[in-house]
Design brief:
By secondary structure, this protein is an alpha+beta fold. Helices cover about 40% and strands about 20% of the residues. The radius of gyration is 18 Å and the shape is globular. The mean pLDDT is about 85.
């Protein structure tokens, strides 16, 4: 078991992006009603894990930059994640290998979302 852990190779985390409405507390108090703003989040599944960590994209990019500077992450991965985020913003996110689940007409939208949430992207 320990030998298996030592033989693992570094690989990038699985990351998907999501836009969520977050309440703007100051604006809500000022206007006397619920006011929300859209915030982009990165949902990160580390290699060899089932856990998903959710963080704001802006903060995640700052943390990544620091990780690259401290040699905890290859610069290529940072570039890759930024490229994927730009593609997601433009609605052009393409899976690395295979046909994308999203938009696949053979299964229903609910089934598509179920597969995507299970990290089955192609």
């Amino acid at each position: 078991m320990i030998g298996d852990l030592q033989d693992r190779k570094d690989r990038p985390a699985i990351v998907r992006f999501e836009r969520i409405a977050v309440e703007d507390m100051a604006a809500s108090k000022r206007e006397g009603r619920y006011v929300a703003r859209d915030v982009d989040f990165a949902l990160i599944t580390p290699p060899y894990s089932k856990d998903v960590f959710k963080t704001k994209v802006t903060q995640w990019f700052l943390n990544m930059k620091q990780d690259v500077q401290n040699d905890r992450m290859p610069a290529e991965w940072e570039d890759m994640y930024k490229k994927h985020y730009q593609l997601w913003l433009n609605g052009q996110e393409i899976p690395l290998n295979g046909s994308p689940i999203r938009g696949w007409g053979v299964i229903s939208p609910a089934q598509q979302e179920t597969l995507i949430k299970l990290n089955v992207l192609t």
